[in-house]
Specification:
The chain is of the alpha+beta class and 155 residues long. The protein folds into two domains: 84 residues, TATA-Binding Protein (2-Layer Sandwich), CATH 3.30.310; 39 residues, no CATH class. It contains four helices and five strands. Strands 1-5-4-3-2 form a five-stranded antiparallel sheet, covered by helices on one side. A hairpin with a 2-residue loop joins strand 4 and strand 5. Helix 1 packs antiparallel against helix 4, helix 2 packs antiparallel against helix 3 and helix 2 packs antiparallel against helix 4. The longest helix has 31 residues. The radius of gyration is 21 Å and the shape is elongated. The termini are far apart.
Amino acid sequence: MFEAKMYEYSTPFRGDLDAAFTLAKTALVSQGFEILPGSSAELRAEGPGMRSTQQSALLGVSEFRFQIAASTLTVSAVLGGVSTMKAFVTFFPPGLVLSLVVLFAVLGHGISYLGLWLAAPWLAISPLMATLIERRTTRTIDRLARSMAAAALPD
C-alpha cells in the first residue's frame, strides 16, 4: 500500500553536462544527499529521507538518477520519503485520536463518541495530504530537471 513509487521525468537537453550536474550536486548536497559513483553521463544520489511536511520536497526522494543521452535529460527518482510520509499522515492522526479514546475509557471516563467523530475527518484529510505531498515532490523534481537543462545552455 505504501510502497515507494518510481517517478521519471524527461526534458530536452543540449549544453554543458558538467554545468547541469554541478547544479544538481549543489542542490542535493545542501539537502543532505550523498552523491554516489556514476559514469560521466550519469549522476546518482541517495537521500536522507523525509521526516516532516515542513522539509524540502526533494527529501521525498530516497534515490535519484540523472542520465543524459540522445539530447535528453532523464531523472529517475524513488519516492521513498513520500511513501514514509504517506504512511505517517494516514495512520498517526486517527491512531492518536483512537488511542486517546481508549485511554480515557480505561481510566473510567467511558467511551467518548465525540473522540470517534474527531477521527472521522482524517479519513478524507489523510489521502488528500498524501496526494499533496507526492505532487509537491514530483513538481520539485520536474523543476530541478528543467533548471539543470537551462543551466547547461551555452551563454
